[in-house]
Design goal:
alpha/beta, Rossmann fold, 5 domains, six-stranded mixed β-sheet, 23 strands, 40% helix, globular
Amino acid sequence: MAHQREIAEEQAFLDRALGALDHMRAEARSLRDSAAVATMRGAGDLVERDVVMGTALHRLDQLAIGDQPLFFGRIDYAPDADGVADVYHVGRLAVSDEQLNALVVDWRAPVAEAFYRATGVESLNLLRRRHVAIRNREVTGVEDEYFADSDGELALPEDGRREATADGLVDGGLALGGPGSLLAALGRARTGRMGDIVATIQGEQDRIIRAPLAGVLLVQGGPGTGKTAVALHRAAYLLFTHRATLERQGVLVVGPNPLFLNYIENVLPSLGESGVTLSTISGLVINVTVRGRDTDEVDRLKGDLRMVAVIANAVRTRERPLRDDVEIPVGRAIILLRARETRDVVERARRRPGNHNQRRSAVGRELANRLASQYYQRFARDEGEGASGVTELADQIRATPAFQTALQRMWPRLSGPELLHDLYGAPALIRAAAAGILSEAECDLLVRPRSASLDDVIWTTGDAALIDEARVVLGPRRRPRPIPKATDSLSVDGVDLDSYRGDVRAAALREASRQSVVPSVELDEAEFVTYGHIVIDEAQDLSPMELRILRRRDLTGSMTIVGDMGQATTASSSASWDTVLAVLEPRRVPTRVDLTVSYRTPEEVLRFAAPTLAAAAPDLEPPRPVRRVGAEPMVEVVAPEHFSNALIAAATRERAAVAPGRVAVIVSEQLVPSVLAILHAGGVAAVDPRDQDSDGLAADLVVLGAEAANGLEFDAVVVVEPSRIAARGADDGRATNRGLRTLYVAMTRPTRRLAILATEPLPPTLL
C-alpha cells in the first residue's frame, strides 16, 4: 500500500538523519575532549580553552533531544524555473551530514514557515505537506496534505489514496494543518507536564510565534486556544532569531504560581532553550517570602494604583525635621543641633533629585558642616585651620552616636519591608500617607499588628508589589561593592605563568581550574535585573501594582502578554486590556491579536460552559472548538449524606475512563482538605499537587483549588460544589462575576471528560 511505502521512505530518511546526528555529537565530544587535555602555555590559552569547552558543551546540550522525534514534518515545494523542487524535513533542530548538506531544518528557520502557514487558499508554493509520526526511532505513521499547483491540479500519486481524518473534528470550515496529527496529539493522555506543540502548530498560532521582537504583542485567547504554548514557543523562536541580543539581555517568563511554573518548565528545554528565567510576580521581589493571603477587599486595595501615591507619601512622612533641639558632644564641648535649622535642611533635601536613601547623605553632610562651622566660630576662631579643619571636624561629628541617632530620626535609612512594616503598624502613619487618597475605611484595612522582627512578618502577594514600589522610592540602602564570586572560568590576568618552573606552573593551573574567582557586584535589594524580552502568562490576573513590577524590569519595551479576560479570577485583577497597557506604558503602539480556535477543549465542554462565560463576561465570545469527544458533561446533584460515596464513585469512574490519563477534582479552596480526606477514607489515592512530597500534577488524581487551576489541563475533571466556586468573593453565597469566571476556568480544564457533583443548588448558568 502507498501508506506503507511512504512510512518506509521516511524510515530510511530517519535512519540517515539519526546517523548524521550521531556524527555531530561525536564531533562535539571530540572538541570537548581535545580542549580538556590541551596544553596551556599562557593566559590566552586558558581563555581559548574555556571558549572551546563552553561551545562544545553547549552544542552537546542542544543535540541531546532524548526520546523526542528528530523531525515531524516534510514540505515539498513546487519546481522552480529550472525544474528543481526543494524538499525539506522540519524538526526540533538543524541536522547536516558530513558534507554539511542540510538534512533537517530547525522549525524556527524561515524556510520552515510554510509548514505551519500553508492553506488550501494560500499554499505558499507548496505541493505537499507531510506530518510524520515517530516513536522510539521508528516511523509509525504518515499523513499527507496536497495543495493545488499553479494550474489548479493536485499532485496526488497515482496509486495513492487520502485517508479520512475527520473523525472527532467539528464541522465549520476551519483550516487545520495536519488535522490527523493534531487530533492524535490532543487525544494523548496528559502527563502532568505541558509538552511542546512544535509538531502541530497551527497557522494562527505560527503568526503570533514569528511576530517581530520589538514592541508589545498582546494575545487574547479563550480556554484551549494554546496561548501558553504559543507564548513559550515564541520565546524559543525569538531566542533562535535574535540570539546574540537576547542571550545577553535575557528572557523572562512570568506565570501565576509555582504550580503553573512546574507545569511548563520542560517546554523550553525540549525546544533546545534552557537560558530563560521562569518566575512568579512575587518571585521577582527578592528577599521577600510570601507566606500569607489577604482578604479580597485588602488584596483589591493593595493592587490599586492609588497605592503609588500612598507609598510616596509614606516615604515623605519619614523625612521630617526634629521637634526639639539635640545636644551633640564634640570633644569636651557640646554643640546644639537646633530644630529650626533642621526644617530648612529637610525642605532643601526634599527638592533634591534622587531617591530617599541617596539624599540622606546630603542631609547628613549639611548638618555636620553646620555644626562644625558653629564649633569653629565658638571655640577655634583664631586657630586658622580654615575649610580643611571644618571638613575634618564634620566627618568626626557625623560618626558620633548622638548625631547618627538624630539623623535617623530626621531621615532614616530604610528598606522596603521596613517602610511597610512601620506603616501597617501605625494607624497615624497610614492616615498621614493616605490623606486625600484613601477613605477612613480603606485606611483601617491596611492596619495590622507589628511583629517582633521583620523575619516574623507574614507577607502577601499584595505586599510584595508594594515593597517593590517602596524600594524604587527609597533606593539602595548601600552602594554596590565588588565581591569575589566563584565561577567555572579561569582568571589569571597579570600573572606570567611562563616564568614559573614547569611542575609549579602545572600545579597553579590545576588550582586555578578548581577554584577560580572573578570580580562580581552584589546588588542591593532595590536594584533590579532587567530583561530584553518578557513573556507574561495569565496576565489578566495581575493587579496594576504587579504590572508595575514588570515595567521596571523591562529593558527594551519588548513583551508578549497572553491571557483571557474571561478567566480573570483574582480580586485585584485589571479591569481590561486597556488598563493593562496603560500601566505598562508601551514605547510604541502595541499589537493585539486574538486566538479564536480552541484545540484542547472539546465542543461538548465549551458548549456546556458557554452560559457561565456569557454571565461573567458578556462582551467576550467563546472560542470555536475543533474537536468533539462524544462524551457530554455529567451533572449529579445528591443529598449531603450521599456526597462521600458519590465523590468516591465519580473520581473512580473518571480515572478508569481516561486511564492512563490524569484526573483533577476541582473545588473551592476551603474544601480541598475535606475532599482529600473523603477520598483517602474511601481508599482512593489522591494528592494535593502543591504538596512538595507528592507527585504533583503527575499524579493520577489530584485535588485542586479552583483559584489555582488557571493554565492547567487534565484528561478529566470533576467540579465539586460549583455554587461555592461561583460565589467566590461574596459573603451572601450569591454568584459573582469573579466567581463565575473562576467556575468557567474550572469547567474548561479537561481535554476529554467533565463531571459536576453537588449537594447544593446549582448556579443558574448550569441549569
